[in-house]
Design goal:
GO terms for molecular function: deaminase activity. By secondary structure, the protein is α+β, with helices and mostly antiparallel strands. The protein has one domain: RutC-like (60s Ribosomal Protein L30, Chain: A). The strands form two sheets. Strands 1-2-3-8-6-7 form a six-stranded mixed β-sheet, covered by helices on one side. The protein has a two-stranded antiparallel ribbon with strand order 4-5. α2 links the parallel β6 and β7. α1 runs parallel beside α2. The model has no long low-confidence stretch (mean pLDDT 94).
Length: 130
């Protein structure tokens, strides 16, 4: 079994800092997408929980798609919210993306190391990629 890393060079975070981890890692048909925040071009996009949730999820999906996986391949999602009051709004956005193929999920409340409201990571599986 080989391991493939996506987005190792050139990944930047807030303030243009180099990020010392892969955007995603693939092994044995599994794809693990690193936690994504509502960031574009290395900067957090301002907005409420709805806008930030859409962008964080979309960032995950963009990485997943670039690695050759599809929405139906998503088996698990981890969500970190900075405020429990965001839970219902996040669920509405989550349903927009995953209503047809709902994955397993965990959602927790915690502080984040960047100034945003949400972070999302996904795990995918595709037996054809083993």
């Amino acid at each position: 079994m080989s391991i493939k890393r996506y987005g190792v060079s050139g990944s930047t975070g807030t303030g243009g800092q180099h990020l010392p981890f892969a955007k995603a890692v693939e092994a044995g048909g599994w794809l693990y997408v690193s936690g994504q925040t509502p960031m574009k071009e290395g900067e957090i996009v301002e907005g409420g929980i709805i806008e930030q949730s859409r962008l964080a999820i979309q960032n995950c999906l963009d990485i997943m798609t670039n690695a050759g996986y599809q929405l139906k391949d998503v088996v698990h999602v981890k969500v970190i919210l900075t405020d429990a009051r965001y839970f219902q709004s996040f669920n509405k956005v989550f349903s927009e993306f995953f209503a047809e193929h709902p994955p397993a999920r965990i959602c927790a409340v915690a502080d984040l190391v960047v100034d945003c409201k949400v972070e999302v990571d996904i795990t995918c599986y595709n037996a054809e990629r083993v």
